[in-house]
Amino acid sequence: MISFTFPKSSPSTPLPQHQHRGPIRLGSPVSSAGRKRRIMSMQCNRLTAFLLLGFGITLFLTHTIVQQTTGQSSIEHISKLSKFLPSKTVNRWADLYVAEADFPETTYMTGVAGFNYFHNLYFANGTFLIVTSEPSSLPSYGINGILSGLQDPTDKWHNHWAAEEDRIMIVSPQEAKERMLLGKAAIRKSGVSMMFADIREGGQSSFLNHYYHFIGEMFLGLWRVVTAAGEIELPSRLIYKADSPDWRDHAGITTWFQQAVLPEAEIEEATIYEDRRKSGVTFLFDKIAIADRWAAHRAGQEVKYWNKANADLPSLPVPLTWMDPLRDQIKRLALAEGCDMKRKNPKVPIVLYINRQLTSRRLLDEDAEELIEEMEKLADEGVIEFYNEFMEKLPRVEQFCLAMKSDVMFAVHGNGLSHQLWMKPESAVMEIMPVTGFARDYAILGEMMNHEYYAIHYNETFPVEKWRKENGYGVDQGPDFHSPRITVDGKFMAGMVRKLVSTRINVVEPALPWK
After folding, report:
1. Which helix H or strand E contains 228, and what residues bound it?
2. Cα–Cα distance list, 246 to 200, 254, 264, 456 (Å)
3. Which of 183, 169, 90, 71 has its CA nearest to residue 128?
4. I need a labelling partner for 361 at 20 to 30 A (CA). Which of 4, 20, 236, 468 fits?
5. Are residues 3 and 110 in the same domain?
6. Are residues 286 and 351 in the same domain?
7. pLDDT of residue 60
8. Does residue 36 fall inside a structural domain?
């Protein structure tokens, strides 16, 4: 505010010539000093307004992201990045040490037998503690469907029974205190932890050293329960009870996936788990999902009919985009390595045939030749863009690049069909099997991915209503399931492909949420 001071005078005293009676209007020329003060004040006000505007724009740009979803853009606070990054990025200021007086109760989020997700789960002296005053909030299968004990070495059927209190227990806060089951303080393990409880026992594998059995069953199962709880944070750590030779697959896909797709996740091997057990320290896992194959087989519903640990997972509702955070990670890596995600012709869908003719489970040579000839005819007609690939010969990222941009994938039953996980949702998958049998492994993946899946028996589809015996159990694989004598009608496959691509002409690759 600009103010002026005037000399005092009495009515009888004449005013100097440069002064006059009457009001002085704001802005009237008074003196050169006053004019300078007025100009300086106006300049300060303009500078202040400009700085405030700049600060506001900077704050907006550094604290928000523009997210693209289903073709629309929305502006969100930058903390939303936690949906795609390990939550330790956001929670790094959280208290590392939690006093006993502040111990929260455990919350069961969601899950199915063998795949369970908790908030605030405790671990002390080798035992997980579900600390709750409402045990009825836990699933009806209880510990039986959460964690297993060791098998009885004398049992020829390798049965595993439910874990006992040396591994996991359900206690009330009062009981935990009275029995001194927890320490006076806990070390917080923030972010999403994923634990794989299976280990090798004698000659029995943990089944973790296989692309499908690890990523397609156990890891995917834990990701499914996290997203079913409405969360899409990438894991901060992967915890193994198995020794590393038992979870590292011979093809190296597991280690590649962990280091390339989850580069910020900590990999905790069996020695770290053992150190934590022996430390005598209480740990508080903010968020932890636990996979236990034998708990799934012991307490699962559909699992018992199919002998597949992940058979109950399709029953967990998730958004259609539930795999996007993982797929987008691979996509960014593939793009950085020069992967071309586009069709050669925007209106010609891409078809990928994963060729298994170099393996023991394969097509008859004459059927394999006819199949490729029929696909090449479709390509010559301009109906499809065709790729006939031996995946084991391709660099890792190129394999995933092909899978991501394919609209239709088909192959003889085998590990390569796990690549359907990285296709766009609602793509098409065909699995060729001997006419004498069926296995539901990759059909489960197709259902979880919401793909259009078909089992192929020579020159016909093998429909869902024929997958079960009268007693409800899945049909057998049959004697030729793993043989080099599998048959298929190339012309029938060409007809199926023509039909499947006709509904996918206008499909486009979804945009990344940010680049």
Report:
1. helix 220-228
2. 7, 11, 23, 33
3. 169
4. 468
5. no
6. no
7. 58
8. yes
Which helix (H) or strand (E) segment holds residue 330: the answer is helix 324-336
pLDDT higher than 50, residue 76: no
- Which residue bears the tokens 């020695």? 271
Asked whether residue 18 is domain-assigned, the answer is no
pLDDT in tens, 432-466: 999 999 999 999 999 999 999 999 999 999 999 99
pLDDT band at 504 (very low <50, low <70, confident <90, very high): very high
Of the pLDDT bands very low, low, confident and very high (cuts 50, 70, 90), residue 33 is low
Q: Do 280 and 422 belong together in one domain?
A: no
Same domain, 271 and 153: yes
59-69 in b/e form (b: 16+ CB < 10 A) is: eeeeeeeebee
Tell me: pLDDT of 220 over 60.
Answer: yes
Based on the domain organization, do 115 and 256 belong to the same domain? yes
Query: Which one, of 197, 164, 174, lies nearest residue 296 by Cα?
Result: 197
Establish how many alpha carbons lie within 13 A of residue 312's alpha carbon, considering only the half-sphere containing its beta carbon. 22
Q: Provide the mean pLDDT of the chain.
A: 87
The whole domain housing 53 covers 1-9+30-83
Per the structure, the count of domains in the chain is 3
User: CA-to-CA distance for 366 and 359, rounded, in angstroms?
Assistant: 16
Q: Which residue in the block uniquely carries the two structure tokens 């962990």?
A: 258
**Residue 205: which pLDDT band, with cuts at 50, 70 and 90?**
confident
Residue 510 lies in a domain: no
Q: Which amino acid is at 181?
A: L
Give the mean model confidence (pLDDT) for residues 96-122: 97
Residue that finishes a domain, picked among 262, 287, 318 = 318
Domain's final residue, options 287, 318, 349: 318
Q: Are residues 254 and 223 in the same domain?
A: yes
Q: What is the pLDDT of residue 63?
A: 52
Whether 79 is in a domain gets the answer: yes
Judge contact between 444 and 311, C-beta under 8 A. yes
- Tell the residue number behind the tokens 């604290």, with chain if given: 63
Q: Is the pLDDT of residue 152 over 80?
A: no
Per the document, the length of the chain is 515
190 and 230 inside one domain? yes
State if pTM tops 0.85: no
| Same structural domain, 396 and 371 | yes
